[in-house]
Amino acid sequence: MIGEDTKLRCGIEIGLICMALKIKEKLEQANIILVLVPSVDYGKTVVDISKELSDKSLCYVSLNKTFGSLKENFDKAKMRMDSVIVIDAISKTIRNTPNQTAGCYFVSSPAAFTEISILVSKILRHKFEYVIFDSLTNLLVYSDKGQIVRFVSNIVNQARENKAKVVLFALDIDEQQALIKECTMAVDEVIKL
């Protein structure tokens, strides 16, 4: 007999998978989406959406996890990595890391907006279909709201010029609402989970 905990976990899993499919469908009409995610199941939500988008070329910009940690999470989810490029903005802040390795580019920090923009631009020239930013709200640790909004606008403009679709993740918490409100001006749609 299936216990209530198992039923609840299965229900959550199915809900997250359905939500990932809905995000993919939304990207058919809206090119730039801001996804507001509650802190509960944040990591699982981001992985599920990334997995759903990884059937096409995907650039994943990590502003809060190392490439090693991401790869481990993606491997657990059985996510295809052959068409995924990661930009890791964390590893160089904690250890000596090369500029590049198979499937990943490393930048000096999440606040290295110019480095990140240059890499995203180079990757988009290779006709990548999707770009994921995880997570915008993490940037407030490294920079002020005005700089973050300019950075987001720059990335969004690059994506539009290259006909790429962007998913911007943000934690849906009260402390981040001012940044979220500013960033909504640059996107086509906001999805609150």
Helices and strands in order:
Elements: H1 4-29, E1 32-37, H2 42-53, E2 58-62, H3 67-76, E3 84-88, H4 91-94, E4 100-101, E5 104-106, H5 113-124, E6 130-134, H6 145-161, E7 165-171, H7 177-183, E8 189-192
Parallel strand pairs: 1-7, 1-8, 2-3, 2-6, 3-5, 6-7
Antiparallel strand pairs: 4-5
Helix pairs in contact: 1-2, 5-6, 6-7
Key terms:
about 45% helix; disordered N terminus; 8 strands; Rossmann fold; alpha/beta; about 190 residues
**What is the terminal separation in angstroms?**
31 Å
CATH topology: Rossmann fold
Q: Report the average pLDDT across residues.
A: 90
Query: How large, in whole angstroms, is the Cα Rg?
Result: 16 Å
What's the CATH class label?
Alpha Beta
* Series of secondary-structure elements, N-terminal to C-terminal: HEHEHEHEEHEHEHE
List low-confidence stretches: 1-12
Number of strands: 8
Shape: globular
CATH homologous superfamily heading: P-loop containing nucleotide triphosphate hydrolases
- Work out the helicity level: 40-55%
CATH arch. level architecture? 3-Layer(aba) Sandwich
> How many independent structural domains?
1
Strand percent estimate: 15-25%
How would you sum up this structure, described in words?
Helix 1 (about 5-30) crosses helix 2 and helix 5 packs parallel to helix 6 (about 145-160). This protein has 7 helices and 8 strands; from the N terminus they run H-E-H-E-H-E-H-E-E-H-E-H-E-H-E. It has an 8-stranded mixed beta sheet, with helices on both faces. The longest helix is centred in the N-terminal third of the chain and has 26 residues, at about 5-30. Helices cover about 45% and strands about 20% of the residues. The protein has a single domain, classed as P-loop containing nucleotide triphosphate hydrolases (Rossmann fold), CATH 3.40.50. The two termini are about 30 Å apart. The protein has about 190 residues and is of the alpha/beta class. The model is unreliable at about 1-10 (pLDDT under 50).
